[in-house]
Amino acid sequence: MLLLLGINPVKKKKETIIRRHCPHCNDLRNFQEVQYRQFLSLFFIPILPLSKPGTVFTCVTCGYSISGEQAAQSDLNLPSPPANNSNRVLVMCPRCEGPMIIPVKEHRLNVTCPHCTMEFIIKGIKGEIPIASIIDPQQL
Q1: CATH code linked to domain 88-139
Q2: What would the pLDDT profile of 43-74 be if each residue is shown by its tens digit?
Q3: Which of 12, 48, 82, 137 has the most CB atoms around it within 10 Å of its CB?
Protein backbone atom coordinates (compact mmCIF):
# COMPACT_ATOMS: atom_id res chain seq x y z
CA MET A 1 0.00 0.00 0.00
CA LEU A 2 1.35 3.39 -0.95
CA LEU A 3 0.66 6.48 1.19
CA LEU A 4 1.79 9.95 0.26
CA LEU A 5 2.22 11.97 3.45
CA GLY A 6 3.83 15.38 3.61
CA ILE A 7 3.83 18.85 5.08
CA ASN A 8 2.53 21.60 2.82
CA PRO A 9 1.86 25.28 3.42
CA VAL A 10 -1.63 26.58 2.73
CA LYS A 11 -1.76 30.25 1.71
CA LYS A 12 -4.75 32.60 1.64
CA LYS A 13 -4.61 36.05 0.07
CA LYS A 14 -6.25 38.78 2.14
CA GLU A 15 -7.64 42.14 1.02
CA THR A 16 -5.06 44.32 2.79
CA ILE A 17 -2.59 45.97 0.39
CA ILE A 18 0.20 48.33 1.46
CA ARG A 19 2.59 50.37 -0.70
CA ARG A 20 6.28 49.97 0.19
CA HIS A 21 9.73 49.98 -1.35
CA CYS A 22 10.60 46.47 -2.56
CA PRO A 23 14.31 45.66 -2.10
CA HIS A 24 14.16 43.00 -4.83
CA CYS A 25 12.46 45.21 -7.48
CA ASN A 26 14.22 48.35 -6.17
CA ASP A 27 11.03 50.34 -6.72
CA LEU A 28 7.82 51.34 -4.97
CA ARG A 29 5.41 48.37 -5.19
CA ASN A 30 2.15 47.01 -3.75
CA PHE A 31 2.46 44.32 -1.06
CA GLN A 32 -0.55 42.06 -0.45
CA GLU A 33 -1.26 40.41 2.89
CA VAL A 34 -0.98 36.60 2.75
CA GLN A 35 -1.95 34.31 5.64
CA TYR A 36 -0.14 30.96 5.74
CA ARG A 37 -0.30 27.79 7.84
CA GLN A 38 1.52 24.43 7.69
CA PHE A 39 -0.70 21.36 7.25
CA LEU A 40 -0.10 17.61 7.29
CA SER A 41 -1.21 16.43 3.86
CA LEU A 42 -2.41 13.08 2.65
CA PHE A 43 -2.16 12.72 -1.14
CA PHE A 44 -1.58 16.53 -1.34
CA ILE A 45 -4.85 17.24 0.50
CA PRO A 46 -4.43 19.30 3.70
CA ILE A 47 -5.74 17.25 6.64
CA LEU A 48 -4.33 18.42 9.97
CA PRO A 49 -2.97 21.91 10.85
CA LEU A 50 0.52 21.76 12.34
CA SER A 51 1.27 25.45 13.06
CA LYS A 52 -0.42 28.65 14.09
CA PRO A 53 -1.48 30.99 11.28
CA GLY A 54 1.18 33.51 10.28
CA THR A 55 1.02 36.65 8.17
CA VAL A 56 3.43 37.95 5.56
CA PHE A 57 3.19 40.73 2.98
CA THR A 58 4.20 39.68 -0.55
CA CYS A 59 5.23 41.95 -3.43
CA VAL A 60 2.62 41.47 -6.17
CA THR A 61 5.27 41.96 -8.88
CA CYS A 62 8.19 39.72 -7.86
CA GLY A 63 6.88 37.67 -4.90
CA TYR A 64 9.39 39.03 -2.34
CA SER A 65 7.91 38.59 1.18
CA ILE A 66 8.32 40.60 4.37
CA SER A 67 7.03 39.77 7.84
CA GLY A 68 4.06 41.48 9.44
CA GLU A 69 6.38 43.29 11.88
CA GLN A 70 8.44 44.76 9.03
CA ALA A 71 5.26 45.88 7.29
CA ALA A 72 4.04 47.61 10.46
CA GLN A 73 7.19 49.73 10.64
CA SER A 74 7.27 52.97 8.70
CA ASP A 75 9.08 52.30 5.42
CA LEU A 76 9.66 55.88 4.39
CA ASN A 77 11.82 56.91 7.36
CA LEU A 78 11.39 60.52 6.39
CA PRO A 79 14.39 62.66 7.19
CA SER A 80 13.71 65.52 9.52
CA PRO A 81 13.08 68.81 7.74
CA PRO A 82 16.14 71.05 7.72
CA ALA A 83 16.38 73.51 10.60
CA ASN A 84 17.59 76.29 8.31
CA ASN A 85 14.95 76.41 5.54
CA SER A 86 16.74 79.14 3.60
CA ASN A 87 19.27 76.86 1.90
CA ARG A 88 17.84 73.28 1.94
CA VAL A 89 14.47 71.76 1.12
CA LEU A 90 12.84 68.32 1.42
CA VAL A 91 11.64 66.95 -1.96
CA MET A 92 10.08 63.66 -3.04
CA CYS A 93 11.36 61.66 -6.00
CA PRO A 94 8.80 61.72 -8.86
CA ARG A 95 9.32 57.99 -9.53
CA CYS A 96 9.54 56.21 -6.16
CA GLU A 97 8.30 59.02 -3.88
CA GLY A 98 11.46 58.66 -1.80
CA PRO A 99 12.28 61.69 0.36
CA MET A 100 15.59 63.56 0.09
CA ILE A 101 16.98 66.84 1.35
CA ILE A 102 18.64 68.96 -1.33
CA PRO A 103 20.15 72.44 -1.40
CA VAL A 104 18.12 75.23 -3.01
CA LYS A 105 20.09 76.92 -5.80
CA GLU A 106 19.39 79.79 -8.15
CA HIS A 107 20.08 77.57 -11.15
CA ARG A 108 19.28 74.03 -12.25
CA LEU A 109 20.47 71.18 -10.08
CA ASN A 110 20.89 67.62 -11.36
CA VAL A 111 19.81 65.21 -8.63
CA THR A 112 20.11 61.42 -8.39
CA CYS A 113 17.56 59.75 -6.12
CA PRO A 114 19.34 57.65 -3.46
CA HIS A 115 16.37 55.24 -3.34
CA CYS A 116 15.82 54.30 -7.01
CA THR A 117 18.87 55.95 -8.70
CA MET A 118 16.68 57.93 -11.10
CA GLU A 119 18.18 61.20 -12.30
CA PHE A 120 16.03 64.31 -12.52
CA ILE A 121 16.46 68.10 -12.62
CA ILE A 122 15.43 70.48 -9.86
CA LYS A 123 14.58 73.95 -11.19
CA GLY A 124 14.22 76.74 -8.73
CA ILE A 125 15.06 80.17 -7.47
CA LYS A 126 16.54 80.54 -4.01
CA GLY A 127 13.76 80.98 -1.47
CA GLU A 128 11.14 79.11 -3.53
CA ILE A 129 10.31 75.41 -3.50
CA PRO A 130 11.79 73.87 -6.68
CA ILE A 131 9.74 71.96 -9.23
CA ALA A 132 11.15 68.53 -10.13
CA SER A 133 11.06 67.28 -13.72
CA ILE A 134 12.16 63.98 -15.23
CA ILE A 135 15.08 63.96 -17.69
CA ASP A 136 14.11 62.43 -21.03
CA PRO A 137 17.07 60.33 -22.32
CA GLN A 138 16.34 61.31 -25.96
CA GLN A 139 16.82 65.02 -25.14
CA LEU A 140 20.40 64.47 -23.94
Answers
A1: 2.20.28
A2: 888 899 998 999 999 988 888 888 888 877 75
A3: 82
